[in-house]
Amino acid sequence: MEIPGRCGWLSDLPVLTQTPASAIVLSLQHFTEENHLSQMVAWNKTVPIVQREAVVVLAEEEMAKRFNALLEYELPREGGRRPDLIVLENGVVIVVEFKGRTDILLADVDQVAAYARDLKNYHALTHDLEVVPILVPTGYKGPRSTHGEVTITCPSELGRFLAEQARRRLGDPIDAKAWVDGEYAPLPSLLQAARLIFDRMALPRIKRAESARIPEVVDLVLATCHEAAATKTRHIILLTGVPGSGKTLVGLQVAHSPSLEDLRSRTPGKTNGAPAVFLSGNGPLVEVLHDALANRAFVAGVKKFIDYYRFKRPSLIPSEHVLIFDEAQRAWDAAQMARKHGDAISEPTALLSIAGRIPDWSVVLALVGEGQEIHRGEESGLQGWKDALDEWGSADGWIVHGAPNVAWVSTSGSRCRFECEDLLNLSTTLRSHLAGNLHEWVAQVLQTGGANLKGIRSLADELRRAGFLIYVTREVELAKRYVVERYSALRDRRFGLLASRYAKNLRALGIDNTYHFQRAEQLQVGRWFNAEPGDTLSCCALKRPATEFECQGLELDFPIVCWGDDFMWDVDKWFVDVSRRKTVADPARVTINAYRVLMTRGRDGLCIFVPRSDDARFDATANLLVAAGGQVMTETISAL
After folding, report:
1. Nearest-angstrom CA–CA distance, 377 and 330
2. Residue 433 lies in a domain
3. What is the DSSP string of 17-36?
């Protein structure tokens, strides 16, 4: 039969049972282009099981003749993720994953749960259907059981369970062709989104991004740019948001939007530059994007931009009219600029002074994160922007746009007009559709500790129900085995070690967390995030961690956060070793922010590794994280 381009096999159950297993295996082989022995052995074992259990369903349920089976359905744009079997029943989508083992691995359970979760959230024709995940270890002989939403069964019970699901009669039999052709729009990672924007392709319009009103925010910023050009005025837009809420994504879309092309400067006899420039003070982010896109013009370092136009060539004027400053809360204060350049002018003031001499009009889009200040000289946050507006705002007639939470920036000395826009505060994380409350859970753990454990556990339970997993382990090798197994053969998935730069206990465990320029061999951040999993310098090699300085603004599918002795739970409060961060004004705040960065990088979940130690505070820290809702990681879950 004709097989659609999204799976290796599609047929109704009668055809499935009547087709030689060898023909089905050949179809799967042609579709996946996989010829290695282990895969062929797996198919030769599981296809007959599927056929045998389909006979059971047909014998027990008359309606099953209209059911359809898909083998190796490939989730679009998901880097080769393929559930082994999908059965489309009467209003139910069954997702089955086979594993050639006797034990039930936690990683296997989480893998099939993630398949079901993503189909439910991203597949247009599955949003309103029930999705049932099933794990079948082919050597398992035990009774049927459940772990969370996942049903675990031995091979000989699969058909009976499928028949039980069919008898629930939750709807009409699902149209297989329409289902296979249905739109599947996963939430892109930051790097995937950057590649799409770079190639001028449309970003997937998914419900979560739309419900967070990201498209409307982009349209608002673009409209403000056109208004500035038409009225010859100057505007600063303060876009605030929680970690992972899409601030960087908004900035990249604006910077490379075709709708700004008509605002490009037209100077006779000169090569015209782009109408907007995306600037970031986050060096690792710049390096990773340069490496991923093989292009150094897509994003530029804000420090080099300011150094060039403020100090080296102060008489020159940028060709761009729209200056986008990512991680604007991390802008250097005047004292840090004096140390670096000998000029006591803050980065916000320097940028506004540069933008103020651009002819006719200019727009500064400042992307402001919450609780992300981790470097010396960054602690002023939004206060630095208020001070800059107090100094430059009135003279240049700046109009300030922001949500109500930043209205105070334009009060008092600046006398700037403030235009309130609720859209300009992004409160929903887009790093993962699962992690809506992650930033809140992390904030409460780090700031209140054991003061509100019931409420904190409730947040963790919400995250777990949504599919975002938080594990705690005392064995780093266990965490490593989990992520390797969970994401095996997935070239586009990234996992890795993260650690505080100032933790001193980790190097004795073989975790080299010294800051990159102090390492004997610098961490190649671009390669760490972008290289194929088999590369020895890839994050997936699980050899060297990225610190808070190297991972800020970036993301992993599943990070392993290695806990340090610079921040530990001590009886009833957090202990902060302030001696490790002597150069910052508020070491406790910066330390909390560092761990906030480390704990909010994940898209599917995170594992927190708390080392064993003679220091009882490590035990207390692990106990607190478990009490706060983290699940103790185990290798297997056979004892059910």
Report:
1. 8
2. no
3. HHS-HHHHHHHHHHHHT---
CATH number at 409 reads: 3.40.50
With a CB cutoff of 8 Å and minimum separation 6, the contacts of 221 are 237, 239, 250, 254, 365
Report the candidate in 45, 143, 52, 24 with the shortest Cα–Cα distance to residue 101.
45
The stretch 42-64 carries a mean pLDDT of: 95
User: Do 452 and 553 reside in the same domain of the chain?
Assistant: yes
Same domain, 409 and 446: no
Render pLDDT for 511-546 as a digit per residue (tens, 0 to 9).
988 754 454 457 888 999 999 998 999 999 999 999
Q: How confident is the model at residue 274 (pLDDT cuts 50, 70, 90)?
A: low
Return the ∠ at Cα 412 (arms to 407 and 416), rounded to 5°: 65
Cα–Cα distance, 110 to 481 (Å, whole number)? 13
Q: Does residue 640 lie within any of the structural domains?
A: no
Q: What are the structure tokens assigned to 190, written together?
A: 């930051």
432 is a domain residue: no
* pLDDT tens, residue by residue, 60-119: 998 999 999 999 998 876 667 899 999 999 999 999 999 999 999 999 999 999 999 999
End position of a domain, from candidates 143, 164, 181: 181
Write the secondary structure of 559-577 as one string of H (helix), E (strand) and C (coil).
Answer: EEEECCCCEEEECCEEEEC
Residue span of the structural domain in which 290 resides: 190-426
Quick one: which of 397, 348, 407, 401 has its CA closest to 223? 401
322 domain-assigned = yes
Q: Give the integer Cα–Cα distance in Å for 7 and 27.
A: 9
Tell me, yes or no, whether 279 and 418 share the same domain: yes
Q: 449 and 361 in one domain?
A: no
Q: Are 170 and 92 in contact (CB under 8 A)?
A: yes
Asked whether residue 124 falls in the same domain as residue 245, the answer is no
Nearest to 494 by CA among 439, 531, 522: 531
